[in-house]
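Morning - glutamine inputs below, output right after.
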Amino acid sequence: LSTELAQMKERLPEWLEASRALTAEGKTAAYIPELAKAPKEALGIHILNMNGESVSAGDCGLVFTMQSISKVFTLLLALMDNGEEVVFAKVGKEPTGDDFNSMLKLELVEPGIPFNPLINAGAIVISSLIHGATPEQKSERILRFFCELSGNETLGYNLDVCRSESATAHRNRSLAYFLKDNGVLDDDVEEVLDVYFHHCSVEVTCADLARMGLVLACGGKDPVTQKQLVPRRYVQIAKTFMMTCGMYNASGEFAIAAGLPAKSGVAGGIMTMVPGRLGIGVVGPALNSKGNSVAGVHLIETLSREFDWSMF
Ligand code: GLN
């Protein structure tokens, strides 16, 4: 084991338990009823380096849905399918400072396009840009892409979560119909949302997220197979969005505390990385008021401080 991972292995259980104490302050996401059932006290982490060595701690075996973490990868696929010019005619490049599902500001970026691809409105537009003749084909291409990046051929959907979200997605529906009215969505709204709910409900473990994060940390090259899975330029774009918008309206705070590109999801997952070195997957379903894993954020901030990981 590398010196860094060996040191981590020794201290990780203690740091993890300190962070776990914060789960008492958090709440599981309730607006998607299936997600409310997740174990509130759980906290797990998996850290993977470029030599394929890893350390993990806590509830790292927990299976959870990617939710917003999937938006990073649909953005990459949309860029690969369409190129930068087409994608950025439909979504902006700026953080919002509002909640992830905010209806505010949709009118402000000309001509009614979402501020960035990581808020819900932007991610719904990105789902519509994925190539495929039918929603099923689009979803299948997205799932294949996630399998390739995670090195895990067995990834699949949690259909209970997918249906549960669809049944209660009044806000996402209204965002999507508004985008349709603005001429930003070309396709049938329900078909676009079907693709969106499916990629949000892909199930992973911390190890899958660590591997996906490591590919991003390595500029799109799979360090295990040495295959360039995503063009370096697109990975650069995705990581920049993670730094500026990945933790919703807590992105500035997280950038100051941890200084790493990261993306969270409402099932409690966080994918982050140390550029050029490590991929990291964390899960802790208890969320803070900004919709980020309360214990997960604390644990990553602790590690970043202890190992001086901030990019700044
Ligand atoms: N599927 C979730 C939603 O649209 C994703 C949001 C999130 O993880 N923040 O509300």
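Note: The chain has two domains: 3-66+204-307, 68-200.

O.
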